[in-house]
């Protein structure tokens, strides 16, 4: 499929497990990562972090630096958001994944993040890929919205070639002619990536659909297809969210989704971490 020297499945036929503060991503267990799209305030983040932990999440997500299509949209609390993520991590004990948009922010992001997220829009930012590679921290690399799987795997190869084997992939939907959903969640990617690479494969049905009501169905489908985990956006008051309220689950709906997903995991011989 592509010139893969480090990411190819043949390099590690048994698969890679990325361990983050005791959470094993890529092992037999299915990992639930959840939290708000964006960190908005201390109260919002702490309430959401507690709720997702109670509902079954083992890693907290939350954006401090947000890549927004319009420069006039809420672009995140930036360094203050990182401080709040560190607070939420200290309070809940959940490891944190947050996006790094610019290599200049890397030292600050690395202080509060257990996993560095490289977003869809930066999947082919090769200098950023090399920088997160040199950081040595686990990297959650999202699929570019128009990237083929071969391009995606070569982006992962950039991180690995810079000396970092701890790469986690995440299918988050691609651009197609369909307009009823925000993106088209490409679940073909899950078995195909597992065949081509040894890296763990997550699925993000929140951005993959853009509709909160669709998220439980696609989360279940992802686990049925073999996903190693899910990335889910949760907000205590989605109608008031500063970004992505439309695809954010309430804590109650998140908790119900986790129960449903646990049943699907059991049906395919897995369990939740
Ligand atoms: C996100 O997960 O917050 C995000 C911006 O996702 P993506 O890069 O997939 O659009
Ligand atoms: Mn979002």
Word description of this protein:
With 273 residues, the chain is an alpha/beta fold. 36% of the residues lie in helices and 16% in strands. It has 9 helices and 11 strands. The chain has helices at residues 42-55, 79-92, 106-112, 126-135, 149-161, 189-196, 205-209, 215-224, 251-267; strands at residues 18-20, 23-25, 29-35, 59-61, 96-99, 115-118, 139-142, 167-171, 201-203, 229-233, 271-272. The strands form 2 sheets. It has an 8-stranded parallel β-barrel with strand order 3-4-5-6-7-8-9-10, surrounded by 8 helices. A two-stranded antiparallel sheet has the order 1-2. Helix 1 packs parallel to helix 2 and helix 8 (215-224) runs parallel beside helix 9 (251-267). The longest helix is centred in the last third of the chain and has 17 residues, at 251-267. It starts with 17 loop residues before the first strand and ends with a strand. The relative contact order is 0.18. The mean pLDDT is 98. Manganese (II) ion is lined by residues 37, 207, 233, 243-244.
Task: Describe how the helices and strands are arranged.
Elements: E1 18-20, E2 23-25, E3 29-35, H1 42-55, E4 59-61, H2 79-92, E5 96-99, H3 106-112, E6 115-118, H4 126-135, E7 139-142, H5 149-161, E8 167-171, H6 189-196, E9 201-203, H7 205-209, H8 215-224, E10 229-233, H9 251-267, E11 271-272
Helix pairs in contact: 1-2, 1-9, 2-3, 4-5, 8-9
The chain binds phosphoenolpyruvate and manganese (II) ion.
